[in-house]
Amino acid sequence: MTTPREELLPSTRRALLHRIATAQTEGRSPSLVAAVARDGELVWAGGRSMVDGHEPDEDVQYRIGSITKTFTAVLVMRLRDEGVLDLGDPLEKHLPGTGAGEATIAELLAHTGGLAAETPGEWWERTPGTTRPELADILGEEPFKHPVGRRHHYSNPGYTLLGSLVEALRGAPWEDVLHREVLEPLGLNRTSAQPQAPHAGGWAVHPWADVMMPEPVEDLGLMAPAGQLWSTTADLVRFGHFLVKGDDRVLGADSVREMRTPSAPLPTGEWDRAYGLGVDLLRWERGSLAGHGGSLPGFLAALWVSEADGLAAVALANCTSGPPVAALAVDLVKIVADAEPRIPEPWRPLPEVDQKVLELAGPWYWGTQVLVLRLTADGGVELGPLSGAGRSAQFRPNGDGTWTGLNGYYAGELLKAVRRPDGSVSHLDVGSFVFARKPYDEGAPIPGGVDAQGWRGF
Question: HSE (CB half, 13 Å, CA atoms) of 122?
Fold first, then answer.
């Protein structure tokens, strides 16, 4: 059943319904539910079920598995923003005695801490968390599989450590901290650590026959921060909007942008898949997507958001394997983005402008390469090539006449206007590079100097 939303055209709604119906049938899932939001508002929701007339809607809970990790990462980033910890701190500084304390908090968030993918012993997702009462039971005698910081290796135990870190620094259970600091402020009232009716049951579907059996539903105990949560499509698309825009009650826009930034120094345009800080990243033809997937016995989940299109899409199924929900959620974004492109906001002039900033607008030269500095509506600036490909970045103002790069080659670098004694602008300094108003401007401190004879023919 598709919930009618006037914001989308009937043809778009039918295309979305057809896509999830195909996924549920071909994936042989007992049920499948999906939703799409635009700019934080739910614009479509649909579901399919093996039981006629009982299709789930956007209020039915499913287990979301590792999407839980993104929620845990938000809690850690809150601690960072409050100054309680630094992402470069080794875990040992705040949670001593684990045996894995040499990994930094950032490395654990990005799965570059070198830890094992799973716990030792029995399959932790199908056994009670009470069988692993201590962190030593989660990590085992040899917690590291790779040198710390050398490679991305997905680690469920790494997020158990982060959950325990949150508990240690907050002095409260992970579940309580999450509810108080994230779920309640964001209005995610149907997201919880334990299932709340109405919720789906988890099933295993036989790979070679159209029969099925129920999967056990276990409390994961210490592993909860890696995969415990239950949620709905309505809550998750709302959470997806938060991952793009932020919310000062929980985490600001700069911090969620940091979460969506690849954690390794990957050259722009040369990655198809990367991982940020608790966020999976995917490059596609329209730009990039951010989100996470999840699975536990009996459940599959995926959330993707496109900042450029203002879209978030979620797909949830209640089977152990079958429908490729990650690809399905990408397709839902694509269907809406292609059929109903985002309507741009009307152009409006800036409400006010600092004249000292305005005089910086226009062309600048790095050597002989011309770049253009533009003022942006949010009070920042953008520096990029006049045309074609090249180094570019957006910069946020620091409040002292300087700007810090947000992305691209100049991410994290400082941009400042260097002025002469009379107040006129000599040049721009961007991470030590000199940008002058003319190619090799003799009036600017060009490294290596400028030939005394100046420009000449051959």
Answer: 9
